[in-house]
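Can anyone check this?
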Amino acid sequence: EERGLAAIQVLQSEGLNPVFEQLDICSEESVAKFCDTIKSKYGGIDILCNNAGIAYKNASTAPLLEKAEVTNETNLLATIKVTDALLPLMKEAGKICQVAPCRNP
């Protein structure tokens, strides 16, 4: 939340008028609350930009299987679940943007 609110301040300083809505894509309760908020406050969405994701640091000592499961749950499965939950709220001619990380060797 702190980073989201900080981003709002930066955008406002550039003359934009963004709004902040909290969403934890790995929490079914958070996704449901987010969908309810979007429907009641905005009547739906025009653009869904899936940009959430995690990555472990190279120095992480977490077991490989744990890293794979957590990363897959967040970056793939939770993103699919959020998209599925928001599709009914997509306005006519709405768009979906998928953002994926890219790392140069």
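Reply from J.R.: I decoded it. The mean pLDDT is 91.
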